[in-house]
Amino acid sequence: xxxxxxxxxxxxxxxxxxxxxxxxxxxxxxTGTGKTVTLQTIAENLSANGIPVxxxxxxxxxxxxxxxxxxxxxxxxxxxxxxLSDFAYGEYPVMFWDVxxxxxxxxxxxxxxxxxxxxxxxxxxxxxxxxxxxxxxxIADDNGLLLxxxxxxxxxxxxxxxxxxxxxxxxxxxxxxxVGTIQRGLLELDAQEAEQFFGExxxxxxxxxxxxxxxxxxxNVLAADRLILKPKLYSTFLLxxxxxxxxxxxxxxxxxxxxxVFFFDEAHFLFEDASPALLDKIEQVVRxxxxxxxxxYFVTQNPVDIPAKVLAQLGNxxxxxxxxxxxxxxxxxxxxxxxxxxxxxxxVEQVMTELxxxxxxxxxxxxxxxxxxxxxxxxxxxxxxxxxxxxxxRMSLIRSSLRFGRYEQVVDRESAYEIIKRRTEERSAQAAxxxxxxxxxxxxxxxxxxxxxxxxxxxxxxxxxxxxxFGALAKSAAHAMxxxxxxxxMRGVLGSILGGRKG
Length: 503
Prior knowledge:
By secondary structure, the protein is an alpha/beta fold. The chain folds into two domains: 5-101 and 218-400, P-loop containing nucleotide triphosphate hydrolases (Rossmann fold, 3-Layer(aba) Sandwich); 109-199 and 420-428 and 464-498, no CATH class. It is 37% helix and 12% strand. It contains 16 helices and twelve strands. It has a twelve-stranded mixed sheet with strand order 2-1-12-11-10-3-9-8-4-7-5-6, sandwiched between helices. Helix 3 (111-122) runs antiparallel to helix 4 (127-142) and helix 4 crosses helix 7. The model is unreliable at 445-467, 474-490 and 497-503 (pLDDT under 50).
């Protein structure tokens, strides 16, 4: 069992208790107060104790975890201030990931796994439009049509929009206006380069739970410097990752240390414009995921960005300085100060605006899960490099990774787009054959023969339009599902139609 993790020092020392790390946490503070360095220090301590980490690198600074530090006078000053006599620089095992695949291993999800709830948020759909998108997923599921990438979803939406009247009885009204809004939203996603995120091979979430040969936890760094420019895509992607961890990891109970610690940087993006239904799901995941051995740490400028129900579950807190420029700022600081276990020696509300860079108000959970009395202290300096690394250094680490080659090649197997396209072509050919046979003048015609010698006409059999449209689709899809490459339609708790994974 690892011992307590030393994170900061002041008049006393501040330790994270390994058993309490999965009770979640918060790192907050205004821009320039030291949040990123704090995150780096915590990640190093977790890794050193065999705990894998996931962190989004929104500024490119956290790539320095892969290289030893040194040569920084500010770091040396902090070492001297805190009298860290045994301090030694070092690097940590890092694995790079990137939605675009340019600065790390590609990260992909299937449209089917993302589900209508998260996609509705990504497409900026209202409640009615999200309902129509849910019908699209339901019809696809009922007919065994895999939605793997955006072209699958586009073709499915277009097909249902073109035949909306045929689904009214079984599924309810499909508004063509909503279908048009969904299609426009998908075009906007294309403009945001989201096409690269959807498809296969899909991320195996267990690749985040790795330790190095020396027993240290691997720090998974998501290159998010470009992704953060698309806040909705960024937050939805990280939310999907949280959902995958919740869905795929087995129940673990109270562990001596967590299986993974997940840092959600720029967390305010997660909650902006989130529907009540989505907020309820987020609160549910945060509340229950610790039983899977996962700790979630939100990193944000102001704690008031976090909904009260979620904030109440964040037991380990590092609060850097906040600025009180407006009455609303002052009100927020007062409210935050009231959430800490009081310290008779500190005016927490006042100190919160006076903290120096790298200094913080800290309250961790003790061995019994009780919040410690809040106090001020300086976060320990990181052992690794503060700042970015060169493209050559990054590429060398990517190519030497054990996961290199697993995700780099896109797989595009038969799914909804191919099946609908083939079926549409078959229907067009069949329609052409059923047109009147217009003969060239002078060619033999059966109508010149006596009625008794003509070929008798066969009455047309009535067709079920719904069966006609989807019978062949379902048959083709069932073949694909039953093949060696077949995969069940699965959907996480944050993406599901009914709130659970379909197996």
